[in-house]
Amino acid sequence: APEKLSGIVTSFLDVVHDRLITDTRGAVADYIPQLAEADPNLFGIALCGLNGHVYESGDTDVDFTVQSASKPFVYSLALDDRGLDAVHARVGAEPSGEAFNSVKLEAGTGRPPNPMVNAGAIVTTSLVRGESSEERFARILARLSAFAGRDLSVDEAVFDSERESGDRNRALAYLMHSAGSLAAPVTETLDTYFRQCSVLVTARDLAVMGATLSNGGVNPVTNERVTSAETCQHVMTIMATCGMYDYAGEWLLRAGLPAKSGVAGGLVASSPGEFGLGLFSPRLDASGASVRGVVAAQRLATRFGLHVLHRP
Ligand code: GLN
């Protein structure tokens, strides 16, 4: 019966939550000063089924900035606006094996390695259509909101903080601008990128966003079609190969799910045809992913046999 299943899932989420709450490894990101203000003890786990039911444990309604977990969803918009070939003429589809803020660009073309590292995400943001930067950001916010199934907003303090401390992203954007890699003006593109990273979400939102990808582009809570099944397939492929940066290979080995981390402690994962997972805990590991989020996702994937290459 559905109630029984619901009870089993919720109690398993509670077990994982209670076991990992004592894990205090890692550190809250502080290279963006405003992020250092986060409460390191927060921990939320949410799972959204394709029937639209959300199972939750812990701090699943606490707002945090989406950061790099925005990248797959903005990539979906660039794909829908420009098509796969036009997007990948400007950004690669190869795991970089490097950190999220790596400055490595392809020799000759100036293309960043993939749309999940900062350089590639800045190019992706520049590919979103719009007459002005306002219109481009409005379309990004609408896309993130449609994935989440509610109207999202921007944390202006984090936006200001990112913009003030974003020298490395600024350097990356100017390097790519000089190589002809960007599809929109450089300062506007940076502001749009900083703004997209500063959109507020909850673990519950990330679960619904992940479930919308798993569900072939139809949000299972609102029943709205957000994007095509083909775009979801492309997005989840890039998440699977590149979503966890220099931990991507080991992540796929151990969790086996398309996923994306963010430096505020969010983690979104999709189990195609099954559900979406949203995790939040601000202490990060060396690759910039939530320590508890990574362990929790791996436990869930193992317990429920979720690896995308799993064959019973
Ligand atoms: N806004 C962050 C940055 O550009 C996003 C990085 C991340 O979440 N990995 O540095």
From TrEMBL:
EC code(s) of this entry: 3.5.1.2
Binding site residues for substrate: S68, N118, E162, N169, Y193, Y245, V263
GO biological process: glutamate biosynthetic process; L-glutamine catabolic process
Top EC class of this enzyme: hydrolase
Keyword entries, A-Z: Acetylation, Hydrolase
Catalytic reaction equation(s): L-glutamine + H2O = L-glutamate + NH4(+)
GO MF term list: glutaminase activity
Keyword hit for Translocase: no
Membership in a protein family: Belongs to the glutaminase family.
Known partners and oligomeric status: Homotetramer.
Protein name as annotated: Glutaminase
Natural source organism: Microbacterium esteraromaticum
